[in-house]
């Protein structure tokens, strides 16, 4: 993953932890929109992919709560190698690097904000 993306994700995580988010650049906004489209195609049949709503599959975590368990950027390797873990019904899929970046940007954008 390019260093600039790692720094951008780290900044987003830090801002989210502090309860506020910096304005998105045009490129980040595009990545978030692309990531949402990917989530709708690959993930929405089981996961709650938005800032609200319930997952359709009982073992599929809400996207908005993923950062409770681990840093969202840690999903990069799993997406690159193909998701093989999760609930037993989870399909295997692989994404290209730009798609991974977009999906991670989207997932990060919907994380619950902590008061602070």
What would your notes on this structure say?
The structure is a single chain. By secondary structure, the chain is mostly helical. The chain has one domain: Cytochrome Bc1 Complex, Chain D, domain 2. 49% of the residues lie in helices and 0% in strands. The chain contains 5 helices and no strands. Helix 4 packs antiparallel against helix 5. The relative contact order is 0.21. The N terminus is likely disordered.
Output the CATH topology: Cytochrome Bc1 Complex, Chain D, domain 2
**CATH class category name:** Mainly Alpha
From the N-terminal CA to the C-terminal CA, the straight-line distance is 30 Å
CATH architecture heading: Orthogonal Bundle
What is the total domain count? 1
Tell me the total number of β-strands: 0
- Give the radius of gyration: 13 Å
How much beta, percentage-wise? under 5%
The topology string of helices and strands comes to HHHHH
Largest sheet: none
Key terms for this structure?
Cytochrome Bc1 Complex, Chain D, domain 2, mainly alpha, 116 residues, disordered N terminus, 5 helices
Topology:
Elements: H1 3-18, H2 26-42, H3 66-69, H4 75-81, H5 97-109
Helix pairs in contact: 1-5, 2-5, 4-5
Question: Summarize this, please?
Answer:
With 116 residues, the protein is mostly helical. Helix content is 49%, strand content 0%.
């Amino acid at each position: 993953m390019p260093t600039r993306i790692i720094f951008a994700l780290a900044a987003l995580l830090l801002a989210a932890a502090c309860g506020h988010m910096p304005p998105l650049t045009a490129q980040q906004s595009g990545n978030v929109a692309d990531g949402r489209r990917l989530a709708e195609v690959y993930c929405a049949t089981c996961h709650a992919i938005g800032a609200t709503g319930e997952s359709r599959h009982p073992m599929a975590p809400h996207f908005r709560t993923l950062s409770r368990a681990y840093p969202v950027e840690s999903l990069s390797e799993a997406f690159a190698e193909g998701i093989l873990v999760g609930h037993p019904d989870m399909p295997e899929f692989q994404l290209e690097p730009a798609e991974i970046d977009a999906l991670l940007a989207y997932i990060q954008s919907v994380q619950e904000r902590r008061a602070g």
